[in-house]
Write a structure and sequence with these properties.
Layout: E1 10-15, H1 22-32, E2 36-38, E3 42-43, E4 58-59, H2 62-70, E5 74-80, E6 83-88, H3 89-97, E7 101-105, H4 108-117, E8 122-127, H5 131-141, H6 146-166, E9 169-172, H7 176-190
Parallel strand pairs: 1-7, 1-8, 2-7, 3-4, 8-9
Antiparallel strand pairs: 3-6, 5-6
Helix pairs in contact: 1-7, 5-6
Length: 193
């Protein structure tokens, strides 16, 4: 197999319920794949402790976010747990033109929006080994109060059900290194399609 000759990169969508390990898997992909980058989402939520604007997220006001929606500057966007999240179109286009593999860590709704614009995007959904383990991971993170953790857990079932309809690849994150290995294989094989 030979690399794509058009110089264009590839989009890889990584989705899954909160607490399943998406961010850790994305970091693992970045360490293992050449010419890969993580798309940085814009959000209206408050910056968390230790988060850096332009590195973790682009933290913007709701007014600015809505202006970007109206101007067509977002590849996808969604409201998640009361906050807006979206992928800046220009940053993704620049990385693709440079031949990079662009990893988008987004929800199922966003994944579907991107797939309509980039039909060759690889869609990988990360599954927990079980609901019980997912609940333990969410509670163990200590980021959310009990009500928010419960809301995230109840939303996980709907997200998983939707993913079975739209995602080509389902990866169970029972063993982190095995899950990363599986995602790397998916991405590497997609580069040569």
């Amino acid at each position: 197999m030979t690399p794509r000759s058009d110089g264009k990169g590839k989009i890889v969508i990584i989705s899954g319920p909160s607490g399943v390990g998406k961010s850790t898997i994305c970091r693992g992909l970045l360490e293992r794949l050449d010419d890969a980058c993580l798309s940085i989402s814009a959000t209206t939520r408050a910056r968390g402790k230790g988060e850096i604007d332009g590195s973790d997220y682009w933290f913007i006001s709701e007014d600015e976010f809505r202006r970007r929606i109206d101007a067509g500057l977002l590849l996808e966007y969604a409201e998640v747990f009361g906050h807006l999240y979206g992928t800046p179109k220009d940053k993704v286009a620049e990385s693709l033109q440079a031949g990079k593999t662009v990893i988008l860590e987004i929800d199922v709704q966003g994944g579907r929006q991107v797939k309509t614009q980039y039909p060759d995007a690889e869609m990988i959904f990360i599954l927990p080994p079980s609901q019980k383990i997912l609940a333990g991971r969410l509670n163990g993170r200590g980021r959310d109060d009990a009500a928010i953790a419960e809301e995230r857990l109840s939303g996980a079932s709907a997200e998983i059900a939707a993913a079975w309809q739209y995602y080509t690849h389902m990866v169970i994150n029972d063993d982190l290194q095995q899950a990363i290995d599986e995602c790397v294989k998916i991405v590497e094989s997609a580069k040569y399609e």
